[in-house]
Amino acid sequence: MVELPTMGPAPGDETLFQRDRLLAALLVGRDDLLLLHCDAVVAELVGRTDPVRLVLVTTAADASADEIRARLGPLVKAIPRGGPPAHFVVVGGGAAAGQAALARASPIIQPVRMSFHHLDAAGALARVKGPALPLLAAAHARLAEVGPIGPEALAEALALAQQERAIVDRLSGSRRVTATLVIACASLLAVSYAFGSGTHDAALWRMGANSADAARRGEVYRLFASAFLHANPVHLFVNMLALWSLGPMLEALVGPRRFLLLYGASALGGAIASTVGSVLDEGRWSVGASGAIWGLMTAGIGVALRPHGLLPPSMIARMRSRAWWPLGLNLAISLIPGVDLLAHLGGGVVGFALAVTALPRGLTPLDQRQRPSDAEPRPRPLLTAAAALMGAAMALSVVVALAVGRPWELAAPPALTRTAVADTGVALDLPESLARAPAVEEIDGVRVHTYGRLPDTPVVFQLMVFPREGETTPEQLDADLEQGRKDLDRMPPEGAAAAGPAKRITLGGRPALSVRHQLKNGMQMASYVVALEDRDVFLKAYVAADRPASWGGLEDKVAATLGLQ
Fold it and tell me: How far apart are CA 201 and CA 286, in angstroms?
């Protein structure tokens, strides 16, 4: 219902009589319109089955164009965005004055599609601006057959509207699941910043961000955990605002258990679709509840299109009229670079499919419920078990992500542990999180030992060992290091820019070389060559752009610990 502004003096009996005849023609013997409000100046009706809003504005029989505009203007401004098309009918005033006023009444930017009609004191109806309204034309054709609507019929029509409003009010009685989801998402954002000061992305990854690489490694817990994580406070605010707008209504309509299943299934559908997308976009990962929220949005559309007898007709009409505008807006937003379109579509498809098939089946119609908790007509142990399983799966995914990812390790300087590099005879000190995940591969006949994995760890080390032939004199070692320095300057990694020339340094009392390069993806690569008696060790450290301050300078510390076992 429109929040109607206070109007000026009531019109005369002649135009009020004309307005009441039109009301009778619109309402008596028909059930496709619902009368929401009626006083001497304004009557508002909405369609019960078709999306339409009709506002009858009564003026004096001799009202001027300025007086009509003054009465009509506040009503036009009060129309909310996203509702059904609005048709304004001015009753009273001469034909010339009424049509002149209505021709200039339409705003440049309309919150909804608008149309303006004039019923003059002589009973002639004219469409002045905007599309026609067949039901208005049909009612006008009946004017000669009906008298003004009587007090009893008017009271009955208003009582029907009050009954339907009471039914709609039952949709605001349940929001426990919605509130719990909002609190969980907000809490995890706070945790991610607490653990990831200076390196929020790394904390999000350790807390369960989703990607195809993680799925290949069997880290399926990320599918649910990622739906509770958000990139920043703005991301959280937008998603939680949408969740709070959609959640309570759907939770009250289908009950908390079915709502939890809808939310969880939509989140899972969005995460799976996002995972498929990251296969095509290597290295991409995602977080956010938007897949689940898209599922709620499309579920609302599904209920409006196929309500299964749950909703009164007037509410269905309003839901249908309002459903497509947010869908179009959100689809446009989903095309912005950096927004996960596939997650949105995946969650949306799941939510819509559930809403038009299994989700509403067996529920008590809204007008038959005595209390908000009466959604289910009888106990359903299997539904309770399924909802409990879904809730446990979502909670457990977050717990597993924290236990496996250990995001708290980012907040403190890493403790180094002595680590032997396979059978090379070389050892170095490494953070425990890197030492416990070694990998070995052979590239061009050279064994490459890797410790760490981006973005799990802020730094990744690669080590190669090259034996020397025969005994090396100090002079020869000096010449080799000088040649190595020149080679490092002459042959930078492909696509990398040197941060400065290669330098001869001393690491742990041993002669060494060092150079740094800036890579295209924002990372830095620090390279070291250290002479260890009868072998040379080539150590490369890949450093994430947003590594935590507690990990600062780690590559130099590790390189200084290179030695023999």
Answer: 10
Query: CA–CA separation, 426 vs 538, rounded Å?
Result: 11
Cβ neighbours around 312 below 10 Å, total: 20
Mean pLDDT, residues 210-223 taken together: 86
**Which residue is it, tokens 């496709």?**
32
Q: What is the pLDDT of residue 3?
A: 47
Burial grade of 400 (CB within 10 A; 0-12, 13-18, 19 or more): middle
DSSP string covering 262-324: HHHHHHHHHHHHHHHHHHHSTT--B--SHHHHHHHHHHHHHHHHS-TT-S-HHHHHHHHHHHH
Q: Is the pTM of this model over 0.85?
A: no
Which residues are 35's β-sheet partners?
Answer: 45
Say which amino acid occupies 344: H
Tell me which residue of 32, 111, 50 sits closest to 304, measured CA to CA.
Answer: 50
Structure tokens at 565: 């076992």
Neighbours of 399 (CB within 10 A): 11
Q: What type of residue sits at position 504?
A: R
Burial of 250 (0-12, 13-18, 19+ CB in 10 A): buried
- Which residues, 6+ apart, have CB-to-CB distance to 302 below 8 Å? 351, 352, 353, 354, 355, 356, 359
pLDDT at 279 over 70: no
Tokens 């490494």 -> residue: 430
Distance (Å, rounded) from C-alpha 380 to C-alpha 119? Answer: 56
Identify which of 119, 6, 1 has the alpha carbon closest to the alpha carbon of residue 58. Answer: 119
pLDDT tens digits along 425-448:
999 999 888 888 789 999 888 899
What is the pLDDT confidence band of residue 7, given thresholds at 50, 70 and 90?
Answer: very low
Task: Pick the closest to residue 561 from 415, 412, 414, 419 (CA basis).
Answer: 419
Judge if the upstream peptide bond of residue 337 is cis by omega within 30 degrees of 0. Answer: no
DSSP 88: E
